[in-house]
Amino acid sequence: MTARIAVTGANGFLGSEICAALKDFHVTALVRRNADCERLKKISAHAEINFLDDDWSNVGEALATTKPDVTIHAAAAMDGGDDIKAARNLATVNILQPTLLLAAAKAVGCKGFVTVGTAWQHWDDSDYNPMNLYAASKQAFDDILRYYGESGMAAVTVHMCDTYGLQDPRSKLIQLLFHLARSGETLAMTPGQQEIDLVHVSDAAEAYAGITKKILSGEISGFNRFDISGGAIRPLKQLVGLMEKVTGKTLSITWGGKDYRPREMMHARRRLTLPPGWLPVMELEKGLTQVWQEKNS
User: pTM for the complete prediction?
Assistant: First the structure.
């Protein structure tokens, strides 16, 4: 019988790629009722959609219907603030809702649970020091997940560097730099010494697929923390140089035109525990070239 995998955030950039990488399984995409499901069309052959209420009050019913063997939690709130509004959103989406999902997974006999963490939980390459409240909310759920991992479930948190790839709808660094290359606009940036670690989203998705297979085979059990890195850490200034090589454009950047953020991640995570049997395949220059070609096709 084909194993059943439930994936939250399946309509997102990473979540949809994870679903695509799970082509050997029966996938249930767990998404909010008002979600844009356009990205799920590419996995329609091996996946179905199950809708969650906005407050996730039906999560128990959704998992009772799905009965997943492994649940992958890729939904998240990404908020850099720490005011009351941000705190409420982060606590609800990154702590309360995944805890409900985790409890529901245990109730239906789910063998394993995998969640997406962040390298920002390791400010200054420490074992744990959150860059911001978002990272702290991720750690809070990791601590809850550890309890379930110590209580019989395979429980895995994967601390991610940033991702990039084709059809990326997010307004993040790589998209911003490509926009500068096309527009010729000038942008004020920091002095550019912070280290950047990027992994292609397809490589990241394969890591989750590999972890899933090892949970099902019994090779991964208990609580585990793994890291995903693109393997080519470089300062922002060097990354911009690579982008100029890829695009053939000189990017108009005013270096030092803005200050570093409070608790800027100056040093990328280096003390890594990679998922067993996984290494990134896509070389950064090749991956960026593909994205640039996509934008100019």
Answer: 0.95
DSSP string of 13-37, one letter each residue = HHHHHHHHHTTTSEEEEEEETT---
Are 111 and 69 contacting, i.e. CB atoms less than 8 angstroms apart?
Answer: yes
Residue 266 contacts residue 124 (beta carbons within 8 Å):
yes
Residue 154, SS3?
A: strand
Contact 226, 145 (CB under 8 A): no
Contacts of 215 (CB under 8 A, 6+ apart): 70, 111, 112, 114, 154, 156, 221
155 in helix, strand or coil?
strand
Q: Report how far residue 65's alpha carbon sits from residue 256's, in angstroms, rounded to the nearest whole number.
A: 54
| Residue 7 three-state SS | strand
Neighbours of 101 (CB within 10 A): 25
Q: How many CB atoms lie within 10 A of CB 182?
A: 12
Q: Which domains does the chain have, with CATH numbers?
A: 4-164+198-228 (3.40.50.720), 173-196+232-266+282-295 (3.90.25.10)
pLDDT of residue 35: 80
CA angle 106, 207, 242 (to 5 degrees): 140
Decide: 136 and 130 in contact? Cβ < 8 Å: yes
State pLDDT tens for residues 154-195.
999 999 999 999 999 989 999 999 999 999 999 999 999 999
pLDDT in tens, 75-113: 999 988 999 999 999 999 999 999 999 999 999 999 999
